[in-house]
Amino acid sequence: MGRTMYRKVKTVVVVSVLSFGLLIGFCAWVVHQASSDLPGESQIRDTILKRYPSKPYATWVPLNDISPELQQAVITWEDPTFYANNGFNIPEIMRSVVRDVRAGAYVRGGSTITQQVAKNMYLSPRKTLRRKLREAILTLYIESALSKHEILEVYLNIAEWGPHIQGIEAAARYYFGKSAASLNWEESALLAGILQNPVLFNPRTYPKRSRGNQVQVLDKLLRFGKLSPTEHAASLRKSIRLNPDPLQ
To answer: Is the confidence at residue 188, as pLDDT, over 70?
Structure first.
């Protein structure tokens, strides 16, 4: 290799290394700016487990007091890899991007349960790049600070199940007049389907649309082996009676 070629190669290598270093530094600066005012892991644990099982979540219930059917219906519908993932489901995120591009609009996000906890607890609903970055950082913090059981308990207690209906205990009593511990498969599937959009899939105002989502949840439970064919068929046949006096 001649001296001229050697100098050119050396220059390219030096420029590449410097450019890579600048890129890493810039990314680190962006992350620092986005996360500078976010709570740390210890603050997250203290905030969620000590502060929130009280007002405004007066109907907060521990995970053991929520029916296994409801837990499974929500996990299967919202985040099937919940217990296996690290807070992110990259394949589902990519599929949601493809769906949105094909539809030319936001159809349904690919957020995991942990990402939804991060968003609902600490962030605004605005869909900006900065908010998504902050959501990703918080997701990592939450996954590190809490167990999966704790994350699921938080999600079920802060999720919106309809206008002014916060948490699964309030939802169970509003829609069915019973506790969250008593929910069966068909009721659980209906409630899980509401989470996609608590307004558009409200069974009181849009019963046919809500029923459609309930069937999809039951079908997915069957597909993932959480329901047997017999249980699936029985749940589809059963009609649901909503609580006639939801304010009581």
So the answer is: yes
| Residues 49, 142 contacting (CB under 8 angstroms) | no
Measured CA distances, 120 to 67, 113, 156, 177 (Å): 23, 10, 11, 26
CATH number, domain containing residue 172: 1.10.3810.10
Query: Which residues constitute the domain of residue 148?
Result: 64-237
Let me know if residue 93 belongs to a domain: yes
Does any domain span residue 215? yes
Residue 81 has pLDDT above 80, yes or no: yes
Give the predicted TM-score (pTM) of the model: 0.80
Is 19 contained in some domain?
no
Number of domains the chain contains: 1
Please indicate whether residue 78 or residue 40 has the higher confidence score (pLDDT): 78
Residue 27 has pLDDT above 50, yes or no: no
